[in-house]
Input
Amino acid sequence: MNDEFKGLDLVGLLDLLEPVPEPPAVSMIPQTPGWIVVGVLLALLIWWGLRRYLHHRRANAYRRAALMELPETQDDPVRIAALLRRTALVAFPRASVAGLHGAGWLQFLENSFSGSGFVDGPGQVIADAPYRGGQADPELTVLARDWIRHHARGPV
Output
């Protein structure tokens, strides 16, 4: 040991050491242009998917509103008929829905729906319900819920 280090304790000797140099910062820029292209394409794909999702959500807002209102009808055919009519007026052109009544209305509901039950089932009461009333029918509520969820939008 040199004489210059004599008399120094361990802490003093450690203070004489030079600090370890810090490594250079890692660049966050990709090293190849391919990763930039992949990043841009991924951002565009995420943007497109988000836009489609929001458009779908907005386009089906009337369905969610109708499904939230359906339990309030308490299986009453008059209220269910009115709800189905309002829902159809939102989903289809007014000219093709507003004038329908009776068997034509039931046929329209049947044709715009992949299921059945309006022409030959519990949905028959809807044709006359706004004029005559009717008894509460849980099967009608289930049929209305299925129609609201699964009807095809647009002209039939």
The mean pLDDT is 90.
